[in-house]
Design goal:
about 325 residues; alpha/beta; TIM Barrel; Non-ribosomal Peptide Synthetase Peptidyl Carrier Protein, Chain A; 2 domains; eight-stranded parallel β-barrel; two-stranded antiparallel ribbon; 14 helices; 11 strands; about 15% strand; globular
Length: about 325
Amino acid sequence: MVKIRDIELGEFPLLLAPMEDVSDPPFRALCKKHGADLMYTEFISSEGLIRDAAKSVKKLDIYEYERPVGIQIFGYDIDSMLKSTEIIEKTNPDIIDINYGCPVKKVTCKGAGAGMLQDIPKLIRMTEAIVKATNLPVTVKTRLGWDEDTKFVVDTAERLQDIGIEAISIHGRTRKQLYKGDADWTLIGDVKANSRMKIPVFGNGDIDSVEKAVDYKDRYGVDGIMIGRASIGNPWFFNEVKHFMNTGQKLAAPTLADKVQAAREHLTMSVQWKGEILGIAEMKRHYSNYFRGYINFKSYRMKLVTSFHLDEIFETLDFIENNQEEFEVVM
C-alpha cells in the first residue's frame, strides 16, 4: 500500500498531474470518476494568493468528492510561499505540493517553478521552511535538473526527503528540454533505487499508452505514475491503465456516446463552477480533445466552439450522440 503519511493511495496509484488551465475542479471530477487516485490543482502563484488575486484564489476551490487532493503552489520568495501556505491550510486540502518543475519562461525567469533548479540550496531552504510551517503533508514536483549539466535529481530528492517532504513526483526532462524530445526515466529509476529513499517516488512524462505505463512501472520500479497530457480529453485513461495492469487486457475504447456524455458533464460542471460566460468559453479548448479522430466532424466542432449559448451547445451534443453513424473514427 502506497501512503503519503496516513493517506492510502492503493498498491500502485495513478496521479493526475497539475496542468494549468486543465486541472480545474470539473476536469478533476471526471478524472476521479474514471480512476485517478490522487489529484493536484492547477499550480497557484504564491504572489497571486497573498495579493488576493481572484484567479489565484479561485484555484483554491476543492470539493469533498475529489479527495485526496493536493493544492500546488509556486514562487521564488520564501516569505511569500510561507504566507501562501497559511492561506492554503484554511481551505483544508489533504496535501500541499510545491512546484519546482514548471518550465515556462514567465515563471522560470522570476526564479520560480523549474527556475529553482538553478539554486538547489535555496530550493532546500524554501521546502524546509514550508514543511516546518504546516501540519499538512508536503510533496514536491520537479524535473531532472535545469539542463544536461545539472541533472542532480538523485541527490536533490534525498535532501528533500531528509528535510521532511513525504513524496516526490519527477518529470523525466530538464527545464531546457521543455516538453521536447522523449522523457528519460533513467534518473527517476535511480531516485527510487537509492537505498536511502523511503518516501513514495512517482514518475511523470510521456505515459501515453497502457503498455508504456506497465513497462515503465516494471522497468523503473516507481511507486506510482503521474499522468498529464494523456488524460486531456481522455479521463478514461486512468481506468484503462488499471485494467491493463490487473488483467493484461485492454478495456474497450470509449464510444462516441461516452465522449459526448463526458463533454456534457464537463460543460455542466464548468458552468456551475465558473458561471455561464466563462464556463462556456473555457470549455472550447476541450472539444477538440474529446472528439479528436472523427471524420465529418469539423462543422460540428465549429458549432461547439463558436456558440455562446448553453442550449445551442447541448443541442449540438445531442445531435452528435443521436447521429453517431455520421461520424467515422480514423484514429
